[in-house]
Automatic annotation (TrEMBL), chain A:
GO biological process, one term: organic phosphonate metabolic process
Keywords: Lyase
Keyword Lyase: yes
Pfam families according to UniProt: PhnI
Identification of the protein by name: Carbon-phosphorus lyase complex subunit PhnI
Molecular function terms from GO: lyase activity
From TrEMBL, chain B:
Domain of life: Bacteria
Species this chain originates from: Mesorhizobium atlanticum
One Pfam family, short name: PhnG
InterPro entries membership: Phosphonate_metab_PhnG (IPR009609)
Name under which the protein is recorded: Phosphonate C-P lyase system protein PhnG
GO molecular function: lyase activity
Keywords noted in UniProt: Lyase
Gene Ontology biological process terms in this record: organic phosphonate metabolic process; organic phosphonate transport
Signal peptide (from-to): none
TM region(s), chain numbering: none
Length: 370, 153
């Protein structure tokens, strides 16, 4: 027999109304506008776009405010929205070498074509809270240096000709890039599918795994070959036009991690690579992604799989924070019937246990008496 | 492909790129100032959908899917018969409609000049100026290394 229990409708409606009120907060404080979030909480918006796997600043900003600043809730909202839209196609692969660069650094080469360009970075700040910002002080306009445009080839391209570093990751020519939004995850998986999962993976989870590789779990001696942030053009092939149609540009962060490699039965000593590419400005995420990408190539490079960061199924199955939060948070939904069943079971087990205990005591007494 | 045809396609693509990058308000403002005709039959959309953005492993290797982006597109037919298309990132349907009309007008030899000079040129100038500003601001953060000699030799 199954008895459905109804109720809570009014409570739920009122809870949502209360949520809306608390979200708005003190009415004497002006309500946030989406453009304020887009402009002034830009990196939070970028994180929602990256892990929500949807590049749309305004939607991400709406999600942030609707979720009261809860990033994973915002990411969840964006993911849900994505499923309502038809798909027009796959863009041509972006060319990060042609990026309009806003930041570009290399930790391996001091002097490289295009140079070290810091851009709007938190690096070298003193991490002191700024009371002037709290007081709403105006900020200076940026300095300008009018110089001739200079090409900024990817560091990997510069390194390649010595032959001591592996090439960009190739796949067989007839390989069609896998798509985790279309096909369920299957293990083992090709590197392209892993990268798609990592690019939308939870920043905190990937950061912790990347950190674990540095601390000795799947040690792989990383250097930042290059990080670049900037806008890349998107183009889409469509049947109605004889050329790839330009869609505009998006900001991405790319990380080329270079790893020392002593060689194995499968590959000679060389520098191997890990790759990170994420929506928006997020070099922490791109770096973590690159560290995880490299660690997950253990099998391909003939390394022993000894640590969590090298375990493809472990990493990829748990990197998606929408799935993770869904399963963890579902625990708070009513489990009354499940729990009643478990309660009955535990009562029975306990009764059996106590009966056994009593029998044993009677037995002991008998033995003592004899 | 013949040279003429290639130039034609390059010009059309350049206009589409400019419109895709431009702000909707800016397109509408210039459109009204130029008095361009906005009468057109909608054949498709404007409709919003997704494109899956692709990157390359290592920057130049095999393609992989990075994530989705919103795109809005439209197709229109002018009373004079030309069919125009537009695609652009974002969800602005008004912009998609105007951009599709601009593409159609551009294909009309009698209108191309007006579209180029009154719409595309000012949009391009504004986009180029914004890009240049960003470039020189970025260039100001380039590190100039120098070496210091310490101690006596």
């Amino acid at each position: 027999m199954y008895v459905a229990v109804k109720g809570g409708e009014a409570a739920i409606a009122n809870a949502h109304r209360l949520l809306a009120d608390r979200r708005r907060g003190d009415r004497a404080v002006p309500a946030l506008r989406l453009d304020q979030i887009v402009e002034q909480l830009a990196l939070g918006v970028d994180r929602v776009m990256s892990e929500g796997s949807l590049y749309d600043r305004e939607l991400a900003a709406l999600a942030v405010v609707q979720a009261r600043g809860d990033m994973i809730e915002a990411i969840f909202l964006v993911r849900a929205y994505r499923t309502t839209l038809p798909r027009f196609g796959y863009t041509n692969p972006v060319d990060s070498g042609a990026m309009q660069v806003e930041r570009r650094i290399s930790a391996t080469y001091k002097d490289l074509p295009g140079g070290q360009v810091l851009g709007p970075t938190f690096d070298y700040t003193h991490r002191l809270l700024d009371p002037e910002l709290a007081a709403g002080a105006e900020v200076e306009t940026p300095a300008q240096r009018p110089v001739e445009p200079e090409a900024m080839p990817r560091v990997s391209a510069i390194l390649a000709h010595e032959g001591l570093i592996e090439a960009d990751g190739e796949m067989p020519l007839d390989h069609v890039p896998g798509d985790i939004t279309r096909e369920p995850l299957q293990f083992p998986m090709a590197r392209d599918i892993r990268l798609q999962a990592l690019s939308r993976g939870d920043e905190g989870f990937l950061l912790a795994l990347g950190y674990s590789t540095q601390r000795g779990y799947a040690r792989n001696h990383p250097f930042v070959g290059e990080i670049r942030i900037g806008e890349v053009e998107l183009e889409l092939d469509v049947p109605e036009l004889p050329f790839a149609v330009p869609l505009g540009s998006i900001r991405v962060t790319e990380c080329q991690m270079v790893n020392q490699f002593k060689g194995s039965a499968k590959a000679p000593p060389q520098f191997t690579r890990g790759y990170g590419l994420v929506f928006g400005q997020s070099e922490r995420k791109a770096m973590a992604m690159a560290l995880c990408d490299r660690a997950l190539r253990a099998g391909e490079l003939g390394e022993d799989v000894v640590a969590a960061a090298q375990d493809e199924e472990f990493v990829i199955s748990h990197s998606d924070n929408v799935q993770a939060t869904g399963f963890v948070e579902h625990l708070k939904l009513p489990h009354y019937v499940d729990f009643q069943a478990e309660l009955g079971l535990v009562r029975r087990l306990r009764a059996e246990y106590e009966a056994r205990e009593n029998e044993d005591k009677v037995e002991e007494k008998k033995e003592a008496a004899e | 492909m013949r040279g003429q045809e290639a130039r034609e396609q390059a010009g059309r693509k350049a206009l589409m790129a400019t419109l895709a990058h431009a702000e909707a308000d800016e397109i509408a403002r210039l459109w009204n100032e130029a008095g361009l005709p906005s009468e057109a039959e909608l054949l498709r959309g404007p409709e919003t959908g997704l494109v899956t953005v692709r990157g390359r492993i290592g920057g130049g290797g095999a393609p992989f899917n990075v994530g989705e982006a919103t795109v809005t597109r439209a197709t229109v037919r002018l009373p004079s018969g030309q069919v125009g298309h537009s695609y652009a990132l974002g969800r602005d349907k008004g912009k998609a409609r105007l951009a599709a009309i601009a593409d159609a007008l551009w294909q009309d030899p009698a209108q191309r000049e007006a579209v180029e000079t009154k719409l595309a040129a000012p949009l391009r100038a504004a986009l180029d100026a914004a890009r240049e500003t960003r470039r020189v601001e970025t260039a100001a953060t380039k590190v100039d290394f120098f070496t210091m000699v310490r101690g006596e030799d």
